[in-house]
Design goal:
- By secondary structure, this protein is an alpha/beta fold.
- The chain has a domain of about 190 residues: 3-Layer(aba) Sandwich (Rossmann fold), CATH 3.40.50.
- Strands 1, 2, 3, 4, 5, 6, 7, 8 and 9 form a nine-stranded mixed β-sheet that branches.
- Strand 3, helix 5 and strand 4 form a beta-alpha-beta unit.
- The two termini are about 30 Å apart.
- The relative contact order is 0.17.
Length: about 280
């Protein structure tokens, strides 16, 4: 089956919040995309003034995602759950992994009606593989798992790669993010993987505090975490080489994202770990 969509209608009649800045559309702007409005660009430009490498960091994060999931497909993983999908930007995760193994299956998950509007781009699976899009919230992991199960494309008896890329900075401590990640990983069998990236203020704390203040004023609370705090998401898992590193240092490949950049410019930790 080429692709499935769990909720028809593409968000028609839904408030997409076009009157205020949105983190997904700002991220799209940082990546050079066109799915953003003047209000998003205004706040994004404020972020860039405070942290001039914001666009570099976004590209480094996207490049890490491509390398990580390609690596997992080469290791034999054929099932992926991508939580916090965001606005589609080609190549999307399924295009990357199906380029390695056409029979890969990908469940995209997001709680944002904006993503649903553009989800057709996530559903152009190969004939051998399958994709779906489900609307669910990572802060409600039980409901998220049920929603993915309802699509019947992920076999929870076989290894799955859980993708949490640039999502957890938007899950503040009051939502118990460590508990959420543990709950999601507990559902997956041995041999599954967690691929995760997370912004950090370790290298430029004052700039990142100003960025967080900007997001908060725009109505999107966010939180950066230290390396030790990010490492906590991998408790009980086995990090594969090179471990938890700044994003552009994770198995770099020629032409894969920014290369001649500093750790401070990327300000993003990234790692992939196996569930024993």
């Amino acid at each position: 089956m080429v692709g499935e969509q769990s909720e028809p209608g593409h968000g028609r009649g839904t408030d997409l919040g076009q009157d205020k800045a949105h983190s997904a559309r700002m991220y799209d702007y940082f990546l050079g995309g066109k799915t953003n409005y003047a209000v998003d660009r205004e706040v994004a430009e404020t972020v860039i003034r405070l942290f001039p490498a914001a666009e570099t960091a976004a590209r480094a994060n996207r490049a890490f995602m491509h390398r990580a999931v390609r690596c997992l497909a080469r290791l034999g993983v054929r099932q992926f759950i991508d939580v916090g999908t965001g606005i589609p930007v080609s190549p999307n995760l399924h295009q990357v992994v199906q380029g390695v193994a056409p029979d890969c299956r990908v469940a995209y998950v997001d709680n944002d009606p904006i993503v649903q509007v553009y989800c057709d781009a996530l559903l152009d699976s190969t004939v051998e593989g399958r994709t779906c899009y489900v609307r669910a919230d990572v802060t409600e992991p039980d409901a998220l798992i049920d929603a993915v199960r309802s699509e019947d494309i992920i076999d929870f008896g076989r290894p799955v790669a859980l993708s949490l890329h640039a999502l957890l900075p938007f899950v503040t401590g009051d939502h118990e993010p460590y508990r959420m990640v543990r709950r999601l990983m507990r559902e997956l069998p041995a041999g599954s993987y967690l691929s995760l990236s997370h912004a950090t203020g370790d290298f430029a704390p004052e700039a990142w505090q100003a960025v967080l203040d900007t997001y908060a004023r725009a109505g999107t609370p966010a939180q950066v975490r230290t390396r030790a705090e990010v490492m906590g998401f991998f408790d009980g898992l086995e990090l594969i080489e090179p471990g938890l590193v700044v994003g552009h240092r994770w198995r770099p490949e020629p032409g894969s994202g920014p290369s001649l950049v500093s750790d401070a410019q990327v300000s993003l930790y990234a790692g992939v770990a196996r569930k024993p």
